[in-house]
Amino acid sequence: MSDLSANPARAHDETALVRFINVQKSYGGLGLVVKNLNLDVLRGEFLTLLGPSGSGKTTTLMMLAGFQDATSGEILLDGRPVTQTPPHERGIGMVFQSYALFPHMTVAQNLAFPLEVRRVAKADIANRVKRALDMVELPNFAGRRPSQLSGGQQQRVALARALIFEPTVVLMDEPLGALDKHLREQMQYEIKALHDRLGITMIYVTHDQSEALTMSDRIAVFNDGIIQQLSTPQDLYERPANAFVARFIGENNTLTGKVAKSGKDGLYDVALSGGGVVRAVADESLAPGDGVIISVRPERCLLGHDFPDPMNQFDGKVLDTIYHGDHIRVKVHAAGSETFIIKTVNARSDLPLRPGVDVKIGWDPKDCRAFR
Fold it and tell me: Global pTM?
């Protein structure tokens, strides 16, 4: 277990440790849950599979773990096909939302179990258990049973158990879903720090986009059995590939309209359904008359009196304000939308933000994206 006690620099290899090649999955021929999946997971990276319920992310994880069979296609682990390999022979660690700890065993016995089934020598087991408990900062909990631990402590034990036999890759299926908000956020940072320290490959499933942005090297956004976009957290947030990704990652104001004309530098003039024209970025070639969805994030919108060209700007009326401590959410009727949201870090003294006040809103065209 030397790799768990060492502290290697975290720099993942740019080669694929896991490969899904044309993988599909259906249940009883009633339609595909995963559709023609081609995905490479890099050695040493933290990859999150993100998407709504029923999007195919958990099914993908279960096929890699061996708990479900692929209907077609091939899955490679470290260059070896594993489609026909039993789960216990794949060398994969697994962490579940339910923790799946044995209630009649102590913490030490739970950690020792995966080593015992692999016929590791008893003396080595004791040393590995001790190092694993130190790794998750529970050195004095060896003799306790799961019922004597908090939810966060149980999750740490489950993580240690997944790592103790030095797996090729660790899979996590919504492991923090049962924890309260504060503890969940704390565990996000702890798991990420552990990954950074160990350099092990981790594949994480969640429907929580904030969790994915916090922890991941890359994120694969699933919908309807298809990866909509695979990219870094920053790219997903700043440059979503389509309207689904833009809506699912972070918060967005959405407007509808039709392309009026294309311009330079990938900017298009769009005539909004609610009236007015907005300039927006588009990654594909659009033609005049094409219907589009406009997306702009609340924190990129400004409130003021006048904005210089080439800012998009509209007259609006304040409908409501909500104080959130670090920002104020202002709901405005503008650009034909009754639910346009602006996040501002402070209220300007010369711009009273109370219902009924007339305001101007504006944003940079480069912060605004148009999708078919």
Answer: 0.87
